[in-house]
Amino acid sequence: xxxxxxxxxxxxxxxxxxxxxxxxxxxxxxxxxxxxxxxxxxxxxxxxxxxxxxxxxxxxxxxxxxxxxx
Length: 70
Prior knowledge:
Blueprint: H1 3-13, H2 20-69
């Protein structure tokens, strides 16, 4: 409980000893964060490609109607 004894424990052993469930929770949260990040990036890339295709389609349609007028 004493912060001084925790610091002594860290300095003596070289690492802070945690229960294995804490390490498991940390690993799970890290994996969840990585998976969420990958899904988010792929979703953004897909939306950007979709928006780019819509812009290209509108430009092609505009060009086609412009050519018909001449």
